[in-house]
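Ticket #4471: structure output looks truncated?

Reporter: J.K.
Steps to reproduce: submitted the chain below (125 residues) through the standard prediction queue, then opened the result file.
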Amino acid sequence: SVYTGAAIMCNRQSPDHQDPKCLPKAFNILTSIGSYRHATMKLPNLGIKMAYNPGVMVSYSGRLVRHGIRVDEGDWIVWSWFLQDSVHNYTHTPRLDYARYNLADLNAYKLAKYNQANFAVYGKL
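Returned output as attached by the reporter:
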């Protein structure tokens, strides 16, 4: 895995915060499971508030994006994977760079998306 850290949180509210030790170029990944209802995730500096239901995976830059989770009732577990700069400093490994798109890859994606759309239309015959 490219991730340098992982955390498991159980039945824990998470007030709005940022992760100052995480790389701004890297995206955290959170996966939620459990038997709970009425959970919300807020990304306040993006103006986003969304339902955070069991089975949802979310990815964002924990350093750049303020985030918080509220669960009103039930049991839940969140797995979080992240990258911290201190690990790269300690191991003398190169840091990530921002994602870049190759125009050829983008054109191939558009073609594949177009073909999938056609297949969905013809699949109803």
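Triage note (M.O.): checked the attachment and the full token line is present. DSSP finds two helices and six strands in the chain.
Status: closed, working as intended.
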